[in-house]
């Protein structure tokens, strides 16, 4: 398996624009996580899915953020409208089990909002 | 609210030294603990997973231990090499979420 695949790797956009980040988890993994990493706050869990169903979205900072998982092999994280404070690296990760299973990360999407 | 502290925040050592990285949790009720490595511009790679029934794990030159009574974990790196240079993060859970520390940035020079 190619691992967790994220796109785009880098995104530069202007404030107010819509941003869509994409993730393909490892085949067979039932759990998918979206994290955000910044220098100030470290790595924060935004939302996670189990079998394509959102389980906990309490980490989503605002209503401007939304995430979907239409099938077992694809998920999106959308920010609309984007703001400069959303600039961060967004990671997608997947695992076979929650917490007792090894967590596999993608290489991240670096977002810069001007 | 669970918080995770990693000490030291940064470490620079010559090649060959044995290292100890520390991780502590404000809530000692940790079920599972993972140590990760992050290279610049990359995602996180899982190094060791200590499950709830375990107290330590070993992989090659790495050994991680977990003291649940104190909520502390230690990552031991033996005979460090320049290729070990990276940021090391610990993460623990006591519910259904992994909470990450801010990491220890390690530099091993030849």
Task: Describe it.
- The complex is a heterodimer of chains A (114) and B (110).
- By secondary structure, chain A is an all-beta fold.
- Chain A contains no helices and 11 strands.
- Chain A has strands at residues 5-7, 10-13, 19-24, 31-38, 42-50, 53-56, 65-71, 74-79, 88-95, 104-105, 109-113.
- Chain A is globular and about 35 Å long.
- The model of chain A has no long low-confidence stretch (mean pLDDT 93).
- By secondary structure, chain B is mainly β.
- Chain B is 0% helix and 56% strand.
- Chain B contains no helices and 11 strands.
- In chain B, the strands form 2 sheets. In chain B, strands 2, 4, 5, 9, 10 and 11 form a 6-stranded mixed β-sheet that branches. Chain B has a 5-stranded antiparallel β-sheet with strand order 1-3-8-7-6, with no helix packed on it.
- In chain B, strand 6 and strand 7 form a beta hairpin.
- Chain B is globular, with a radius of gyration of 13 Å.
Task: Describe the structure in brief.
With 114 residues, chain A is mainly beta. Chain A has strands spanning 5-7, 10-13, 19-24, 31-38, 42-50, 53-56, 65-71, 74-79, 88-95, 104-105, 109-113. In chain B, a hairpin with a 5-residue loop joins strand 9 and strand 10 (99-100).
Shape of chain A: globular
Question: Strand portion of chain B, in percent?
Answer: over 45%
Number of strands of chain A: 11
Mean pLDDT of chain B: 91
Number of strands of chain B: 11
Distance between the termini of chain A: 36 Å
Helical element count of chain A?
0
Order of helices and strands of chain A: EEEEEEEEEEE
Total number of helices of chain B: 0
Poorly predicted regions of chain B are: none
The N- to C-terminal Cα distance of chain B equals 41 Å
Runs of chain A with pLDDT <50, length 5+?
Answer: none
Q: Any idea what the radius of gyration of chain B is?
A: 13 Å
Question: Which outline of chain B best applies?
Answer: globular
Major protein interface: A-B, 20 and 23 residues
Determine the fraction of residues in helical runs of chain B and give it as a percent range.
Answer: under 10%
Structural class of chain B: mainly beta
Q: Give a short account of the largest sheet of chain B.
A: 6 strands, mixed
């Amino acid at each position: 398996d190619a691992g967790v695949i994220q796109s785009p790797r880098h995104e530069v956009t202007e404030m107010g624009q819509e941003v869509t980040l994409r993730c393909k988890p490892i085949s067979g993994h039932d759990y998918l996580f979206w994290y955000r990493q910044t220098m100030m706050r470290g790595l924060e869990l935004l939302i996670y899915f189990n079998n394509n169903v959102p389980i906990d979205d309490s980490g989503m900072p605002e209503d401007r953020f939304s995430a979907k998982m239409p099938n077992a092999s694809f998920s999106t994280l959308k920010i609309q409208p984007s703001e400069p404070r959303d600039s961060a690296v967004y990671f997608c990760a997947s695992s076979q089990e929650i917490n007792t299973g090894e967590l596999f990360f993608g290489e991240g999407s670096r977002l810069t909002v001007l | 609210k669970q918080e995770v502290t990693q000490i030291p925040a940064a470490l620079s050592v010559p090649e060959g030294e044995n290292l100890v990285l520390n991780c502590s949790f404000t809530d000692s009720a940790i079920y599972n603990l993972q140590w990760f490595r992050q290279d610049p511009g990359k995602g996180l790679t899982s190094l060791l997973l200590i499950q709830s029934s375990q107290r330590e794990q070993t992989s090659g030159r790495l050994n991680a231990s977990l003291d649940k009574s104190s909520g502390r974990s230690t990552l031991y790196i033996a005979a460090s090499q320049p290729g070990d240079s990276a940021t090391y993060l610990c993460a623990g859970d006591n519910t259904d979420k992994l909470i990450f520390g801010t990491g220890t940035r390690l530099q091993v020079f030849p």
